[in-house]
Specification:
mainly alpha; 0% strand; Four Helix Bundle (Hemerythrin (Met), subunit A)
Amino acid sequence: MKALYIPTALLIAIMVFSLWVGRYVEQRTDDWISLLEQVEETAAGENWTEAGERLRAAYEDWDANQEFFHTILEHDELDEAESLFAGALAVCEQEDDGEFHVLLAQLTKQMHVLAETQSVSVKNIL
């Protein structure tokens, strides 16, 4: 019976860590989505300088978390978000309203995808 204590404790620790990671990713992506919504509102008001500053701030916050995220998330999903950030920053500098809103929508969707990949759901378990 004692032989089961260590494997059971390890299994519980792994499960708790997995649940924490899922919640952490969800919280961080919610933060970034909120920042992107602020960028969207600022750009809609034709204030491109402030929109660019807010987008750069969102990117810097995103970039500060990449070392940890690269250890727990699929790299392709992170690379896609990175590309969308780069595209949105470039288009913001050009003040291309239509393309900017499309890229922000895609970036927001990508944040939802990142959160979904770590959520506790039947789809992810199976």
